[in-house]
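Design job #97: recover the sequence.
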């Protein structure tokens, strides 16, 4: 069997060029040629993981099946490749240092002075190689966060320099840069690219492939110019032009022969490897781009000002809409602004409403209003994690008549704690780990809508929360039509609630949005969007 190939993706000139999408696209193309591929993200910040970051900082926190709170790029990787990622797929500087310091305390370094080179760089290399050493992958594609030239990313670039030296053609560097268009001169400019490649070279790394992010097509002349100034073959200078959808990028990069050049440079004969079979991908894209009729969904949450804060929910809805032959029109509604008086004005015309996950009490009152509106007016409504908890509280207040019903998270003195911390969790808190993270099994109740949607009895979904539906209220809820249709088989914790007699009113304690992919749209989102379409 061929050795694992390591492909690094670095960025220059500016951040937010879409390294994650380029990495995922390359992964997709190689996978579609029959290779086993995984994507990894190295984040140069000092946080040990992004779990504690405010979504306004880096967007959504993604969660892997093994319970790692990860960078949102892992979401792109899973949505594109349809393959699960794990803790090892996302490393931060904080974790690298934490590991090194732990080893130092344990005496592993035998009295040596612990330094960035070799100890930090060795730890980085160990974490990259760990993926290849599983024997499960032909290609490990590692994206280095940040921009070349940053102080933070230096150790990563140094680790890359060493790996290229050790591995020869089994290790490549793809450098993604930006070519700005000067409107006054009507020209694309390559100077920033040349400078960022110089930065990379100064740190000892010669890129093998350069991808130019651009808003206008890049001419042959420009490609040759970049090739000449940056010591890269002209065929290895490619463009990545603005695309109507991120899901078009793999096809754009296929047209630029990215996969072919990567194969050639890693010692394969591209002619002897089957071409990338993108049939099912194309079928999805046709639906996504070809839909004429729209479906209008409102997303009610407290971080809606930042586009990336609910990335996975947005993508899941867009997958579902495409498969339902609809164009998704998503309206973000800041829950802080919602009141009894403006709720009708805000949500009238929306065919479905998603109430978002969240932490803390800001914006919760607005979520109650949105839920009440949907419940009373038969609007399809999907409550996710905190959205589900607020669904339960709204029901307890307005249907069961418990005016002070609440979650322990928002009111520690409520006499009707329909959302609470369960007894065994309280002891866990003292040990420092109170979040329920990662995939847990869920048993679906026969005869419920959830069971019908999934079409099976046992499912597994990812969690990221602290509080739970208080099962002491289960019987009373069910007697009034709010059924607990999914529970964890080991702990009995309630995972799904649904309102009988309503067209679609379902809350999930877990996050289905983390597992919707292009080729495997999530059944709950499909069903929800279907119900929204019915609601004309
Ligand atoms: N804040 C709630 C909890 O901790 C919900 C979390 C979430 O929506 N992800 O249980």
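Job complete. Output follows.
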């Amino acid at each position: 069997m061929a050795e694992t190939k390591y492909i690094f993706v670095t960025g220059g000139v500016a951040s937010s060029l879409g390294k994650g999408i380029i990495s995922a696209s390359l992964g997709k193309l190689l996978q579609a040629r029959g290779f086993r591929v995984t994507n990894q993200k190295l984040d140069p910040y000092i946080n040990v993981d992004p779990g504690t970051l405010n979504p306004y900082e880096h967007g959504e926190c993604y969660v892997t099946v093994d319970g790692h709170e990860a960078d949102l790029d892992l979401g792109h990787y899973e949505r594109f490749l349809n393959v699960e990622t794990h803790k090892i797929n996302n490393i931060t500087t904080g974790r690298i240092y934490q590991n090194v310091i732990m080893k130092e305390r344990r005496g592993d370094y035998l009295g040596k002075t612990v330094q960035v080179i070799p100890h930090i760089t060795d730890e980085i290399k160990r974490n990259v190689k760990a993926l290849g050493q599983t024997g499960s992958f032909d290609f490990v594609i590692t994206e280095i966060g940040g921009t070349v030239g940053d102080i933070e990313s230096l150790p990563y670039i140094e680790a890359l320099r060493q790996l290229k030296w050790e591995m020869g053609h089994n290790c490549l560097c793809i450098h993604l840069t930006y070519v700005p268009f000067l409107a006054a001169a009507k020209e694309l400019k390559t100077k920033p690219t040349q400078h960022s490649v110089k930065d990379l070279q100064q740190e000892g790394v010669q890129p093998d492939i350069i991808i130019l992010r651009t808003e206008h097509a890049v001419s042959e002349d420009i490609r040759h110019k970049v090739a000449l100034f940056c010591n890269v073959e002209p065929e290895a200078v490619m463009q990545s032009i603005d695309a109507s959808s991120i899901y078009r990028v793999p096809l754009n990069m296929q047209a630029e022969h990215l996969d072919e050049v990567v194969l050639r440079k890693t010692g394969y004969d591209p002619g002897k490897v089957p071409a990338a079979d993108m049939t099912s991908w194309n079928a999805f894209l046709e639906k996504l781009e070809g839909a004429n009729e729209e479906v209008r969904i409102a997303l009610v949450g407290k971080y809606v000002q930042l586009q990336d804060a609910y990335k996975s929910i947005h993508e899941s809805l867009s997958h579902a809409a495409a498969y339902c032959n609809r164009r998704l029109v998503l309206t973000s509604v800041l829950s802080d602004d919602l009141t009894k008086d403006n709720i009708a004005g805000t949500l009238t015309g929306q065919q479905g409403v998603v109430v978002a996950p969240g932490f803390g009490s800001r914006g919760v009152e607005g979520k109650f209003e949105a839920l009440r509106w949907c419940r009373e007016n038969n609007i399809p409504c999907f409550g996710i994690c905190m959205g589900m908890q607020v669904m339960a509280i709204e029901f307890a207040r307005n249907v069961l008549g418990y005016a002070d019903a609440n979650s322990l998270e928002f009111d520690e003195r409520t006499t009707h704690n329909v959302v609470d911390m369960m007894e065994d969790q309280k002891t866990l808190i003292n040990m420092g780990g109170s979040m329920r993270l990662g995939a847990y099994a869920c048993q679906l109740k026969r005869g419920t809508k959830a069971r019908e949607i999934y079409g099976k009895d046992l499912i597994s979904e990812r969690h990221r929360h602290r509080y739970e539906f208080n099962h002491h209220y289960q019987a009373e809820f069910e007697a009034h039509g709010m059924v607990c249709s999914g529970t964890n088989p080991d702990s009995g914790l309630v995972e799904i609630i649904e309102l009988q007699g309503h067209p679609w009113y379902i809350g999930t304690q877990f996050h289905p949005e983390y597992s919707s992919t292009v080729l495997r749209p999530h059944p709950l989102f499909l069903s929800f969007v279907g119900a929204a379409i019915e609601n004309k």
